[in-house]
Amino acid sequence: MKSKQWDSGSEIREQNSVAHVSGPIVVDENGSAEDGPLRREIVRLGCLPYLNVKPLVYPFEHGRLPEGWDLVYATPAILARMLSEGRVDAAPVSSFACLANPHLSIVPDVCIASEGPVQSVLMLSKVEIRQIRTVAIDTSSLTGRALLAVVLSESYGIEPLFVACAPDLDKMLAESDAALIIGNPAMLADRSGLHVLDLGEEWLKLTGLPAVFAVWAGPAESITRQLIQTLLVARVDGMERAGQIAAEESPRLGLQIEMCEDYLTRVIRYELGHREIESLRVFGQKALQHGLIDVEPEIRLAAPISECRVGV
Predict the structure, then answer these.
(1) Are residues 98 and 237 in the same domain?
(2) pTM over 0.90
(3) Which of 54, 81, 223, 254 has its CA at 20 to 30 Å from residue 40's CA atom?
(4) Could you give the count of Cα atoms lying within 13 Å of 10 in the half-sphere of its Cβ?
(5) pLDDT of 94 higher than 70
(6) How far apart are alpha carbons 29 and 11 in whole angstroms?
(7) How far apart are CA 269 and CA 110, in angstroms?
(8) Contact 165/134 with Cβ under 8 angstroms?
(9) Which pLDDT belongs to residue 307?
(10) pLDDT tens string 286-304
(11) Strand order in 25-27's β-sheet?
(12) Pick the residue with more confidence: 13 or 210?
């Protein structure tokens, strides 16, 4: 099957990233700091600026980040690049980035996934799905755009042109038939009069498996047992505080608290089990078949799940 078309002429500036805890560092889309080269900490963790990541990092954001560790906030696309350049040690990175990069290892037993509608990875279209010719793609997205390419081809028999665009729904739909948006903007989007594809729901229909959007990952030498245990304990603690997170994030995002809590406790799954790993395997094979990656995908767990599971 031919490789997916991308409109490289529409690349735009991605949003800035900010690192906290050790002192603010503003990073542009090229990975450069405003105040000079990035300082190297003992461990530098990447972080996504989305509601669904909050349970994985909530303890770190509230005084429980180990001494000398740092958090760097960026979009999925920027984080994937920073990981490949060795500028962060680990991050909740796009699952597609792990499949495309043979040097990344996955932290066991933690992910961001959904089994069914995910609400935060959506394609919104002005026209019937099979009439779509162009899709504006949120430049922040890696997994979303790959999933969309597979779903549109296999479930709907179309291969529209993907055009990179800033996550501004009105502008995206003014210039293209449809738009892919992810994260908080997707949850806030007005869907009135639009055809909606929820990629969590579409992936389940296509494969019978949960959609895995992100995993904690990094170079093998960075994923130490201490790091694994720290991330797993943080996940357990964050999941227990989902109601508190929802209460804090609801006014900031402009979403009802009930919607935020339902999203964090029912919609999103944070445990990387055997079905999620099988989904990653299937995703990798389909990405290869569709020309989205050019390496044989391999699921590289940093340690067996059985050795690292943390009870709730």
Answers:
(1) yes
(2) no
(3) 54
(4) 20
(5) yes
(6) 11
(7) 9
(8) no
(9) 52
(10) 999 999 999 888 898 987 6
(11) 25-27, 17-20, 69-73, 43-47
(12) 210
